[in-house]
Design a protein that fits this description.
This protein is α/β, with parallel strands linked by helices. Helix content is 34%, strand content 15%. The protein contains twelve helices and ten strands. Helix 2 (60-70) links the parallel strand 4 (50-52) and strand 5 (79-84). The longest helix is centred in the last third of the chain and has 16 residues, at 243-258. The two termini are 36 Å apart. 45% of the residues are buried.
């Protein structure tokens, strides 16, 4: 495993991080606590030392906490990030809500304390907001609460997970210097963060956590016309109607352009995201031992060449399957 600095935090994190949404057993069907613990243990054995979870991921924090408690050393040296969701629902479009409604200080504190109980830990290394609108910058008692939680030793660093496909919706608060990290969708199709956000993070020393780097499975080559998912799995909605056919066409063109077999696509997608400026780690959902080992093996591969990155730049695709 290779490691990188997480912005200016002083933390050194694995290039491949563990995205723990799928361990929650809510939106992603087919996991259970025991298999989740086994997958996370294997990731830690292979050198993964950064785990990303959230209050909104059903049982995820509890499974992560159990896995760390049962791992040799109690997960010493493993960094845990979680997210606090807003007090009221926030849509993808501009909500018109005020930060005093979405993230009042008392709500943020309550969320952190609940996360600590679920994780069975006395602190989290990184607290992130699970959504953000840049109009909220400088308002409410949010940052005062963040500072207080740091002083109490309950959180170490603070960041924001940016709204889906809205990478510029964090630039104002980023430039105030209060953020340690930004989490953003960044993959071969979704390249918009490289326009402004990633260079700004590099300039301000803000660590970037790349998410959805495999585009919910689209960039593994497994999403094609006629694909099916378990009943109740949220991917039935994400890849609804003709979307699998759209993905298949785009992926086939990408493979032809690069001259690679489909088996090399996941590795290529991970290495693409890791080539982004200021990217410290990419978090990947890995519920099976096979996927854990496949993704961790990227550390043994060479970075993509400038020529390969140039080819992939042509496969930028402005889509938003979350709407």
């Amino acid at each position: 495993m290779r490691y990188r600095e997480l912005g200016r935090t002083g933390l050194t994190v694995s290039e491949i991080g563990y995205g723990a949404w799928g361990l929650g057993q809510g939106a992603w069907v087919g996991a259970d606590d025991d298999s989740g613990v086994r997958a996370l243990h294997r990731a830690l054995e292979l050198g993964v030392n950064f785990i990303d979870t959230a209050r909104g991921y059903d049982r995820s924090e509890r499974v992560v906490g159990r896995a760390l408690k049962e791992f040799p050393g109690g997960g010493d040296g493993v960094y845990v990030a979680t997210k606090a969701g807003p007090r009221v629902p926030v849509p993808l479009e501009s909500s018109g809500l005020d930060v005093t409604e979405t993230f009042p200080g008392w709500h943020l504190r309550e969320s952190v304390e609940t996360s600590l109980r679920e994780l069975d830990r006395d602190h989290v290394d990184l607290l992130q907001l699970h959504t953000w609108e840049d109009e909220w910058t400088g308002r409410g008692d949010l940052l005062e609460t963040v500072d207080a939680l740091k002083q109490e030793g309950k959180i170490r660093f603070f960041g924001i997970s940016v709204k889906d496909h809205q990478p510029d919706n964090v630039l104002n608060v980023l430039r105030t210097g209060v953020l340690d990290t930004v989490q953003v969708i960044y993959n071969i199709f979704e390249q918009a963060p490289s326009d402004t956000l990633l260079p700004a993070c590099e300039e301000y020393g803000v660590g970037v956590i790349g998410r959805v780097v495999l585009d919910e499975g689209a960039l593994t080559g497994s999403v094609r016309s006629g694909v099916t998912f378990p009943e109740g799995d949220w991917r039935n909605w994400y890849f609804r109607e003709d979307r699998p056919a759209q993905v298949e066409k785009r992926v086939d063109a990408l493979l032809v352009d690069l001259g690679i077999p489909v088996e090399e696509l996941p590795s290529t997608a991970l290495r693409f995201a890791l080539a982004g400026p200021a990217v410290s780690t990419v978090i990947v959902g890995m519920r099976s031992l096979t996927n854990v080992e496949r993704n961790a093996a990227v550390a043994e591969e060479l970075p993509l060449s400038p020529e390969q990155l140039g080819l992939l730049a042509r496969h930028r695709w402005q889509k938003n399957f979350y709407s």
